[in-house]
Amino acid sequence: MATILRDGDLGLLNGKVAVIGYGSQGHAHALNLRDSGVEVEVGLREGSASWGEAEATGLTVRTIADAVSGAQLVAMLLPDQVQPQVYADHVEPNLAPGAAVLFAHGFNVLYERIAPDASHDVIMVAPKGPGHVVRRLFTEGYGTPALIAIQQDASGGARDLALAYAVGIGAGRAGILETTFKEETETDLFGEQAVLCGGTSELVRAGFETLVEAGYAPEIAYYECLHELKLIVDLMWENGLAGMRYSISDTAEFGDYTRGKRVIDEHVREEMKGILADIQSGAFAREWVEDMDNNEARLKAMRAEAAQSQLETVGKDLRSLMHRAGDR
Fold first, then answer.
1. Is 295 exposed, middle or buried (0-12, 13-18, 19+ CB in 10 A)?
2. How do residues 214-266 score in pLDDT, each as one tens digit?
């Protein structure tokens, strides 16, 4: 059974923390750390659209090189695909001796796209939630659980530093778990591909198309297969599967037990094992890096195709109606 940690010495963050990037995670980490009393500078490229947004919150914003210079800890919170180039061009040449480098996801370190010198601590603090949730819960006095991991302990105090950072962004309020860069990366990729994003998206799409092809109205199919999904997931999040089943009708619960395994059958489980094997072997990483190096041509094509699907066009219209109704 994993040990849930809650404590860390925030006083260990006694120098400047450079938060590189001001996107989903970057803005949350920077603001939460600042509100916890940590000295924070946000590092952005010159001309970044986020520059003014970050300054408007009272944060100090500098170029990436200037933010990194003299920092005790540098948090790499840019998208995976741009991190290696930014690290090589702007971070590595300006790292102070003994500065720690922090990641919120292990992809680039595990697959050796970024390899800080052995004189630097390399740590991870990975909140288990999107940045806007990390920030909102913090402002409400709560926190988002986080994982910590140590890839390189040059100082002998890397673990304590990771705990301090996790507490600084509010994770101590909800719980901190220790892991490794390998375990975090592989489980995160698997969860995204098989369940949270890939699996759920395809399940919704297949259900929608099955109803529409059988002659049911697309709008009804959308409400049934996508709109109501949030209600069920919220029940799972609050009280687990058992809590969800307690809250739904007996008819729905009976259908859950008797039909769910027909959808997620042994074939699906074998495919999940295959997805995990691709992740463990590095096959997925190689495929994704190849697309990154090709200006993400496959990703952009798939994104454009998905945007034109009937599920998306019907959903856009229905959401617009619901939003207008809510404004009355």
1. exposed
2. 999 999 999 999 999 999 999 999 999 999 999 999 999 999 999 999 999 99
Ranges of residues in the chain whose predicted pLDDT is under 70: 324-328
Which tokens hold the place of 30? 């920077």
CA of 102: how far to CAs of 86, 126, 148, 203, in Å? Answer: 14, 10, 10, 35
Tell me which residue of 51, 120, 119, 108 sits closest to 84, measured CA to CA. 108
Q: In this predicted model, what pLDDT tens digit does every residue of 279-321 receive, in sequence order?
A: 999 999 999 999 999 999 999 999 999 999 999 999 999 998 8
Spatial separation of the C-alpha atoms in residues 160 and 171, rounded to whole Å: 14
pTM given for the model: 0.90
pLDDT of residue 322: 84
| One-letter-per-residue 3-state SS of the chain | CCCCECCCCHHHCCCCEEEECCCHHHHHHHHHHHHCCCCEEEEECCCCCCHHHHHHCCCEEEEHHHHHCCCCEEEECCCCCCHHHHHHHHHHHHCCCCCEEEECCCHHHHCCCCCCCCCCCEEEEEECCCHHHHHHHHHCCCCCCEEEEEEECCCCCHHHHHHHHHHHCCHHHCCEEECCHHHHHHHHHHHHHHHHCHHHHHHHHHHHHHHHHCCCCHHHHHHHHHHCHHHHHHHHHHHHHHHHHHHCCHHHHHHHHHHHHHHCCHHHHHHHHHHHHHHHHCHHHHHHHHHHHCCCHHHHHHHHHHHCCHHHHHHHHHHHHHHHHHCC
Q: Does residue 57 contact residue 79 with C-beta atoms inside 8 Å? A: no
Position 323 scores a pLDDT of 74
What's the maximum distance between 2 C-alpha atoms anywhere in the chain?
67
| C-alpha 319 chain-centroid distance | 25
Give me the active site residues, please. 105
